[in-house]
Design brief:
Elements lengths: L5 E6 L6 H15 L3 E6 L5 H4 L7 E5 L14 E5 L6 H14 L4 E5 L7 H5 L3 E3 L9 E5 L16 H6 L3 H7 L8 E5 L7 H9 L5 E5 L3 H12 L8 E3 L2 E5 L5 H10 L2 E5 L2 H9 L3 E4 L7 H13 L3 H10 L12 H16 L4 H12 L1
Parallel strand pairs: 1-2, 1-4, 2-3, 4-5, 5-7, 8-9, 8-12, 9-11, 12-13
Antiparallel strand pairs: 6-7, 10-11
The structure holds 2'-deoxy-thymidine-beta-L-rhamnose.
Length: about 375
């Protein structure tokens, strides 16, 4: 039985898989380090394929309204993911427990990942709660990030060892992919405007490629492009030098294997971006779009952090619909070097779970 602190993590699924994916990784990471975690999720459905097995120490509970707090052990630390607005009845009970026990307690707000400069400035800042059931308490802002002055990146303690022992051929065979030395490219994206151009580039390229397409929006986007070209095919498809294979949903561990198996990874959102860095393969990121185009600066900040080559920057600008130019050519070798250099630097920093436990120790 775990004897560490009890964390209540609250996660509201907005759309896609990022909120639940990050919360699950955080919860599992805390449990692996001896903490106890209760993960409250409003829509836990995706966990059935993303995380079929809960590690010892993580308990998933449905976030219902009202929350059943009668007789609940309230725990030591409360974490709201991405400003999800905690249930007032829980905060009232937690505030009452803190006041009665004389403990300080800890209320954290986990923010979205960004490489922008404000992250280091805002990470760890306290904010007094001025109203509502938590009035008088302090909420701390916890910012994941890419530099030592931020809250770090999620990275399991055994990740590098797992990666070193990865057998690419065995994994591909296990997945039923008849690999014949072609260039392997994973695709996890929204609906990038240049997707048709990418398919055309790969189809007319001199070397054979295989695109491993993740289910959901990426698969639908590819199928929409292909139907537009009237090939009329459905399952695995071939377009010139390009073979397209549609994947099932993979659990988070197996999603890493996909990234490790490929020569180039197209990723999206935030969690898969971090995984693609650890994968140590060339990557192209489709950033989650924001209505006011705030994601343009966020993308720029990430490319600066990566010290991306001009061709990688140009590719990102077109892939993200920021530039309307023709899709540049893929340049695997320099892009690989870029990722490898950044990854090496990032590996020298403490991971997010190590840091957040340290943060809780100091501020609680
Ligand atoms: O799904 P996303 O686009 O999530 C997004 C972003 O997080 C965005 O910032 C947020 O605001 C929005 O959701 C609401 O991309 P992301 O962040 O990469 O999360 C995907 C998760 O899904 C990640 O944990 C990896 C996991 N995954 C698998 O485990 N198996 C799979 O087969 C696939 C395709 C993904």
């Amino acid at each position: 039985m775990k004897t560490g602190k009890l964390w209540n993590i609250f996660c509201r699924v907005i759309d896609n898989y990022g909120d639940i994916g990050v919360c699950w990784r955080l919860a599992s990471g805390l449990a692996v380090r001896g903490q106890r975690v209760r993960l409250w999720i409003d829509e836990p459905g995706a966990l059935s394929w993303m995380a079929p097995q809960a590690p010892d120490g993580v308990e998933v509970r449905p976030w219902t309204q009202p929350l059943p707090i009668e007789g609940l052990e309230l725990g030591d630390i409360v974490l709201e993911a991405f400003g999800c607005d905690l249930p007032p009845e829980f905060i009232a009970a937690y505030a009452g427990k803190i006041a009665a026990s004389g403990e300080k307690g800890l209320w954290l707000n986990l923010e979205y990942l960004s490489a922008e400069g404000f992250v280091a400035r805002n990470h760890g800042l306290p904010s007094p709660v001025m109203s509502g059931p938590g009035k008088g308490m302090t909420k701390y802002f916890y910012y994941p990030g890419f530099t030592p002055a931020t809250g770090g990146l999620l990275r399991e303690p055994d990740l590098m060892a797992r990666q070193a022992g990865f057998d690419r051929s065995a994994w591909l065979a296990q997945r039923g992919l008849a690999f014949q030395g072609e260039r392997l490219i994973s695709l996890f994206c929204y609906e990038p405007p240049a997707l048709g151009a990418l398919l055309a580039q790969l189809a007319t390229g001199p070397a054979p490629s295989r695109l491993l397409v993740t289910p959901g929006r990426a698969a639908a986007a590819v199928r929409a492009c292909i139907n537009g070209q009237n090939t009329g095919q459905a399952a695995d498809e071939r377009l010139g030098s390009l073979q397209i294979s549609y994947l099932p949903e993979l659990d988070q561990r197996d999603f890493d294997h996909l990234l490790w198996a490929c020569d180039l990874n197209f990723v999206r959102g935030e969690d898969s971006l971090v995984r693609a860095i650890w994968a140590n393969k060339p990557l192209v990121w489709q950033i989650y779009p924001q209505a006011d185009d705030a994601h343009h600066d966020k993308l720029e900040a990430f490319l600066d952090l990566l010290e991306a080559t001009p061709s990688l920057r140009a590719f990102h600008a077109v892939w993200n619909g920021i530039a309307q130019d023709a899709l540049p050519a893929i340049e695997l070798a320099p892009w690989q070097q870029t990722v490898a250099t950044a990854r090496q630097r990032l590996l020298a920093q403490d991971d997010l779970v190590t840091q957040i436990i340290g943060f809780a120790r100091i501020n609680r």
